[in-house]
Each structure stands twice: as C-alpha cells, then as structure tokens.
UniProtKB/TrEMBL annotation:
Residues 37-148 form the Solute-binding protein family 3/N-terminal domain. It comes from Brachybacterium endophyticum. InterPro entries: Solute-binding_3/MltF_N. This is ABC transporter substrate-binding protein. Pfam families: SBP_bac_3 (PF00497).
Length: 154
C-alpha cells in the first residue's frame, strides 16, 4: 500500500518520465533548436581553422549528435580555460577539444563517461570525454547514449 502511494505521489507531482532532469532545460531547448558548443583546438581530435571552421572527429561526432536531435550548432572557438569559464556562466552546453577524463576543468565542466581510449604521444593511455554543462543531466545522458552507440568509430 505504501509503495502504491509513493508511485501515485510521483505520478501526480509530474515527476514520472522526466528523470533525468536538466537544471536549465538544455536538452529541451537544443532539441530542434540551438546547441551551444565550445571548441578548443587539439589535434587530431578538434581543429579550428583560421576562418573559424571547426572540424575533426569530435566535431563530426557533435554534428551527428546535433542532427539526431534536430539541433543547430552555434560554435564558440577559444582555449579550454575560456570555454570552461563560459560553460560555468551558462553560455555553453558542450565543450570539445580532446578532453581527457582527468581534465583539470572538472569543477566547471561535467565530463561524459569516456567514449574512447587512445594512446598519447608518450605511449600512455588517455580516455577521451566531452564536457557538458554541469546540472544538464538529461543532455548528458542523451549525449552519452549517442556516444555509446557510436563507440569505436573515431
């Protein structure tokens, strides 16, 4: 009886089917709308050309993800330190640039689960992640599900 009452309370409060939640509604806004992505050059993963064009395997991943949710990407090109600041100020949804799982920016960027392991120049293994605005849990889960389906394609 208590279990039924709890389920009824969740359903009537509007919580059923809405987990995980985004603090600022990023996934809802980005679906068929704008997705704000910061890109820092870090070859070979992300390249920022002199004309501002963003390319590379991570840019391709983000384009494919955005296409899947009907989003239009608005790129911001800068150093990771500046992109992390902008993300903390709620100006960006995602950050790419060959970010490692142990990124020093984790106080401003919520890293996805590693989607790829690569060898660094020194031979060590590095796990790559994409930065998501902290608190945007539905966006992060949506992106991680996409990355899981695409794992190994980079």
């Amino acid at each position: 009886m208590l279990l039924l009452a709890g389920a009824t309370a969740l359903t009537s409060s509007g919580c059923a089917g809405t987990v995980p939640l985004d603090a600022k509604g990023a996934l809802k806004r980005a679906t068929n709308g704008p997705l704000y992505v910061g890109a820092a050059e870090n070859l070979p993963w992300t390249r920022v050309a002199d004309d501002g064009t963003v390319s590379g395997p991570e840019a391709d991943l983000i384009r494919d993800y955005a296409s899947g949710i009907g989003a239009r990407i608005h790129w911001t090109r800068d150093a990771v330190s500046e992109l992390a600041r902008r993300m903390k100020d709620d100006q960006l949804d995602l950050v790419i640039g060959g970010l490692a799982a142990d990124t020093p920016w984790s106080d401003k960027i919520a890293p996805t689960r590693p989607y790829r392991t690569v060898r660094s120049a020194d031979g060590s293994k590095q796990k790559l992640v994409i930065g998501v605005r902290p608190g945007e849990n539905a966006l992060q889960v949506s992106l991680e599900r996409f990355l899981a389906r695409r794992s190994g394609e980079l």
